[in-house]
Amino acid sequence: MTSLIARPVPRVAIGLIAPVLLLGWWQWQAGHHATTFAPPSTIGPALVGMLRDGTLPGDIIATLTRAFIGLAIGAPLGIATGMAMGVWRPLDRLLGPLLNAFRQVPMIGWLPLMGLWFGVGEETQRIVIGLSAFFPAMLNSHAGVAQVERRYLEVGRVYGFTTLQRFRLILLPAAMPLILTGLTQSIAFAWIATIGTEILNGAGAGLGVEMQLAQTQQRLDMLLVVIAVTAALGFVINQIVQRLRRVLLRWQPSAL
């Protein structure tokens, strides 16, 4: 029992080495390049000030809302499209070349076009975020369904499974690992696109908007606070998704 409790301690200690070294380098740079590096001691007061005036909580809520609305639009549509293309070959031949061409365009590259069509606002940002979430979900769902061995489907036909039963009992469980991989990637891409669109639009509330404002005001302390919060939120979201993945794939040894 004692060994089980003590086992994670070395991992935590090793994981702290890089942050400690980074803080030491940061402090050294702040002492020699004060105009481009804010000392770590200024970050705490900046964080407290942004929490007290409500700026940071409001930005966090605005960014998370945009990210998850875009994700809720793009990821389910991508999963449905990818699975449909994996099941019906004619649909794959019809849509595959077009979607593969579109996905070569960086998601931020769609922002000017969407801005002309829908204006500079929430709708445009959500569409771009949705597109960012769509393609990883579509590609992985398509690959997950396409790699299902046809003999499994033949077994379903022998047992007289309906189309819905073949989908629910054969295709979906077999494709689930790659579908969840695509969902994980969609979340990461949606988060990146959210921050990127906020920086480029520079209007309203949001962590990206706050980054742009901090740069304009040359507030290095504020900028570093927002970057740290963005990284922390992304890390927490990723950990939640990984835990959810392990729960859903608990029957798969590699997922544990």
Describe the structure in brief:
The chain has 256 residues and is mainly alpha-helical.
Descriptive report:
The structure is a single chain. Helix content is 81%, strand content 0%. It contains 11 helices and no strands. Helix 3 packs across helix 11, helix 4 runs antiparallel to helix 5 and helix 6 (111-118) crosses helix 7 (122-146). The model is unreliable at 1-6 (pLDDT under 50). The longest helix is centred in the last third of the chain and has 39 residues, at 163-201. With 256 residues, it is mainly α. It has helices at residues 2-6, 8-32, 43-52, 55-87, 89-102, 111-118, 122-146, 150-158, 163-201, 207-216, 220-248. The radius of gyration is 23 Å and the shape is elongated.
Itemize the secondary structure elements and their pairings.
Blueprint: H1 2-6, H2 8-32, H3 43-52, H4 55-87, H5 89-102, H6 111-118, H7 122-146, H8 150-158, H9 163-201, H10 207-216, H11 220-248
The poorly predicted ranges are 1-6
Work out the helix count.
11
State the shape.
Answer: elongated
Distance between the termini: 21 Å
Q: Averaged pLDDT, please?
A: 81
For the report, how would you describe the main beta sheet? none
Which range best describes the helical content: under 10%, 10-25%, 25-40%, 40-55%, 55-70% or over 70%?
Answer: over 70%
Number of strands: 0
Q: What's the Cα radius of gyration?
A: 23 Å
